[in-house]
Amino acid sequence: MRRPRWIMLAVAIAFGLMGVLAARLVGESQTRSVQGVNTAQLWSASLPDLAGAQQPLSQWRGRVVVINFWAPWCPPCRQEIPGFIRLQERYGAQGLQFIGIALDDAFSVRQYVDEAGINYPILLGGVEGALLGQAAGNSRGGLPYTLLLDRQGRPVAGLVGAVSERRLEELVQPLL
């Protein structure tokens, strides 16, 4: 069933406002307990990529996975993406896989992806992506939210707010 664009836009705006508030409250990212993560729901999810093809998250099992929930209009999201690009380039061959789940319309996402030169898969989340974010441990719905999973698909860290390249690299390296 197709949802009207205005509903998706309202959800995206609400998440953005919560993300800006969360970023102001926590500044640099805060690591959150990952006990409430529903990994079964995560690994069974499938979202469209920028070409409209459904991409099951399960295709990346067996890798160290960083799932980042973001939007192109979110300043802290835009701040952390260059570091993600560099880490994907640096550690991709060793088994690191970033996945961006964008909570915005395809046109805006594609425009930013091209501008930033993002080198990892970007999936369009919409309402389903917002619900998936909750399953990933983002109970407050703030953006950006980053979930780190080990090679066995177990959650290692949930990060609320912009995460620095150095901080994420410290978390990722032992898992590779």
Looking at this protein, list some descriptive labels.
176 residues, alpha/beta, Glutaredoxin, two-stranded antiparallel sheet, 6 helices, 42% helix, globular
Indicate the topology:
Blueprint: H1 5-26, E1 30-32, H2 39-44, E2 46-48, E3 54-56, E4 64-70, H3 75-91, E5 96-102, H4 106-116, E6 122-124, H5 126-135, E7 145-149, E8 155-160, H6 165-172
Parallel strand pairs: 4-5, 5-6
Antiparallel strand pairs: 1-8, 2-3, 4-7, 7-8
Outline the structure in words.
It is a single chain. The protein is an alpha/beta fold and 176 residues long. The chain has one domain (5-175): Glutaredoxin (3-Layer(aba) Sandwich). The protein is 42% helix and 21% strand. The chain has 6 helices and 8 strands; from the N terminus they run αβαβββαβαβαββα. The strands form 2 sheets. The protein has a 6-stranded mixed β-sheet. It has a two-stranded antiparallel ribbon with strand order 2-3. Strand 4, helix 3 (75-91) and strand 5 form a beta-alpha-beta unit. The termini are far apart. 41% of the residues are buried.
In short:
This protein has 176 residues and is of the alpha/beta class. The protein has six helices and eight strands, in the order αβαβββαβαβαββα.
Number of helices: 6
Helix and strand pattern: HEHEEEHEHEHEEH
Based on CA inertia axes, which overall geometry fits?
globular
Query: Beta-strand percentage?
Result: 15-25%
Mean pLDDT: 87
Rg result: 15 Å
Low-confidence stretches: 16-28
Question: What is the topology, as strand order, of the major beta sheet?
Answer: 1-8-7-4-5-6
CATH class: Alpha Beta
Any idea how many domains? 1
Distance between the termini: 40 Å
Structural class: alpha/beta
Helix content: 40-55%
CATH topology: Glutaredoxin
Q: In the CATH classification, which architecture applies?
A: 3-Layer(aba) Sandwich
> How many individual β-strands?
8
Question: How would a crystallographer describe the biggest sheet?
Answer: 6 strands, mixed
The CATH superfamily is known as Glutaredoxin
